[in-house]
Amino acid sequence: MTAATQPDLTDEFTLPRYRMVELLRDKYKIADERVLDAMARVPRHYFVPEAIRHQAYKDNALPLALGQTISQPFIVARMTELLELKGDEKVLEIGAGSGYQTAVLALLARKVFAIERLEQLAAEANTKLRSLGFRNITLKAGDGTNGWDAYHPYDAILTAAGGPEIPIPLVLQLKPGGKMVIPIGADQRSQRLCRIVRTERGYTQEDLGPCAFVPLIGEHGWNK
Q1: Which CATH superfamily is domain 14-211 in?
Q2: Is 71 labeled as catalytic in the residue annotation?
Q3: Which of 179, 183, 188 is nearest to 210 (CA)?
Q4: Which residue in 71, 98, 131, 190 is the catalytic one?
Q5: Rounded Cα distance, 182 and 196, in Å
Q6: Least confident of 9-18, 101-110, 127-136
Q7: Which DSSP symbol is given to 31?
Q8: Which of 25, 32, 71, 159 is the most buried (most CB within 10 A)?
């Protein structure tokens, strides 16, 4: 599998990164060792603005350009773990942002298709992911609420923005048995993290607790 190189142990961010992983394991009880290994390998500091790079491994979300955010390490690990990836999946990511979550997924799946609404962020994420050596990612700018029909069906979908309801086009692009993790809520400022499982007759929905994401904007999300 094509993947990023192993972390440079002389890198000043290596120890903070491994402390972040221990926090995920010990405080947040992330149990999937493949997810923890991916989080240990992806240089989160590379995906945040240089001015706040020293905060990259803190236990919180951080601001990006254009009013977007890079999610708290815990929520990245939690959403990824909920997909239960084994290594041979085709994954769709909605809301690629800086590309950090994309990189984590790419270490855990065979192929990742990612969509970012904002062209500037999509271009920057593409550049960063390529420079790290990822070759199993295809990323474009567009309306993620419509999914990416050309490459469906997907084994898993991760949506890193919160919508008022479940976008049906995304459900329809899942394989039967496929999983989608998505924040849903009628208030743009807070949501419930949900796991959707596609069935032969529709889908099931599991509520996994409160969360807060930037709005999912698009035809099947918020207007603005």
Answers
A1: Vaccinia Virus protein VP39 (3.40.50.150)
A2: yes
A3: 183
A4: 71
A5: 8
A6: 9-18
A7: -
A8: 159
